[in-house]
């Protein structure tokens, strides 16, 4: 069983290259289903989740070549079959459900098991199914499966009760080959949604308004294969920004989109972190005295739920009282009890975490309860007295490319060990 061992005592310095976004590439891989031509994804992050969704597509006869050295994925779905994909693979990752929209668009029917993923709360697929039904699909589910069938898909006006990223992406992919016009209202406006729309437009789709709360799609008859490079991972960038802050370090992040990072930058600046735009990146300087703050996670352009755990680690060391309110997922404070093992003072009251800053954290054996929790524990371990041993790091590998190597490059004392 692999674990991560983190020892404190070193400031970070130097530069780190940010990978392409996990949450952008997964729907892009799913969208490759929409064309029988070859799609090539460049600068692909070689992540556990990426390999899983590629394996899901392989079970329905997609031809996929993963070139690790070149960070390239080549996908050809010309021989795709409309069969139920391997249920064990689908249950490994929630994003597997993103293939349903493109499969319905291409074959007008599909059956898939309910998806899995991190245990951070209920993430219903009802909005996805509502969208498919609005486009003309008959949807049924039971015994752990979802099935949809349509004679044809016809554009419609769809209002989402919540701006779900997954539902917005799935409906958008289903609608690009539907007859007529589809309008998605109260759509998610995350950068990853806009990136998927840009990929689809490169393929020949007609999509307007992606990145706003209203997306308009004019159906086309077919799409072509393309080469594409996904956007940088704003959550990976935010993770290294929080790490620089907690260690009072100055580092440079290369290959980031500052616009996508505005909500994270705003809160770090409020804490007291210095953020300096630089050519091809940004510089993070954590040498100031810090202030406690309040954070409320919200859909984009609000503060991202995927950065809540990492910010909690930082605020554990900031004198005073900080309050974190989680509005997206109801079960996303599991990392708090792990941080408490390291000496953090955190009280959970429903969807609020009250964080009282402490003078020091102490290394301990802790568990990565989910992907972002694992990153938060690495951040805490960078300044905890002694060493921190993190179990269940397979969660971390789902979303971070060679995270220990990137931290080593910055001077951190971190290694992967096998016990």
UniProtKB/TrEMBL annotation:
Active site per database record: 118
UniProt keyword annotations, A-Z: Cell cycle, Cell division, Cell shape, Cell wall biogenesis/degradation, Cytoplasm, Peptidoglycan synthesis, Pyruvate, Transferase
InterPro entries associated with the record: Enolpyruvate_Tfrase_dom, Enolpyruvate_Tfrase_sf, MurA_subfamily, RNA3'P_cycl/enolpyr_Trfase_a/b, UDP_GlcNAc_COvinyl_MurA
Reactions mediated catalytically: phosphoenolpyruvate + UDP-N-acetyl-alpha-D-glucosamine = UDP-N-acetyl-3-O-(1-carboxyvinyl)-alpha-D-glucosamine + phosphate
The keyword Cell cycle is assigned to this record: yes
Modified residues (2-(S-cysteinyl)pyruvic acid O-phosphothioketal): 118
Location(s), subcellular: Cytoplasm
Function: Cell wall formation. Adds enolpyruvyl to UDP-N-acetylglucosamine.
Family under the similarity heading: Belongs to the EPSP synthase family. MurA subfamily.
Protein's name in the database: UDP-N-acetylglucosamine 1-carboxyvinyltransferase
Organism whose genome encodes this protein: Clostridium homopropionicum DSM 5847
Taxonomic classification: Bacteria, Bacillati, Bacillota, Clostridia, Eubacteriales
Gene label: murAA
